[in-house]
Amino acid sequence: MYVEMKHIFKTFDGFCASNDVSFGVKKGQLAALLGPSGSGKTTILRMIAGLDAPDSGDIMIDGERVNRLPGSRRGIGFVFQNYALFRYMTVAENIAFGLQVQKKPKNEIRERVDQLLELISMPDLGKRYPHQLSGGQKQRVAFARALAPNPQLLLLDEPFAAIDAKVRRELRGWLKDMIARVGITSIFVTHDQEEAMEVADVIILMNRGGIEQMGSAGEICGNPRTDFVRDFIDAGRYEDMKL
Question: Measured between alpha carbons, how far is residue 38 from residues 6, 35, 219 in Å?
Fold first, then answer.
């Protein structure tokens, strides 16, 4: 396993956000942390990223225990749900930001930015500013910026939440394709069952700080192991029918 959470516990002001959470994600997999609001998905993502620390348990990345390792040294790229782009920087400057922090040579930065602009199909938009982009384009830039320093693990927190439904559907396929092309291990948070089923190789379905079931979309839909999983899947199907 490339990422492992081993018996993770985390409380906030007496509320148990993670209750003995254990799972593993293989190298190159795209995993979804799925569940209703308050189920503990984002807490897990933040602990992997080093933004929060577990009360107990082990966080392993590529065989190394990283509990005490700063997030900046974990080889992680992070994509936030609100893009978090710098308003007064161009697209190219936003993508280059992490490389500049690393003090990479200017020619190396320029080459990497051009490469990523091609990857996200925006080769001629490097001089634009965030306010000149659509929601889908902003998300692509956020994705490119996270990839720029060549992380070994990509974390995405509700990556399509701020985008309208039509564009969101288009970006799902795009994201899956890009991650497959880059070959990076990725974990994303979502409360959208359809999104997880369509994009993820493996789904970690959470409820009340714990894991109800983990497996492929087919395994979870075809063989729900708890009443919660069964009800969650049925509720998602009902929402799809209304749409």
Answer: 21, 8, 24
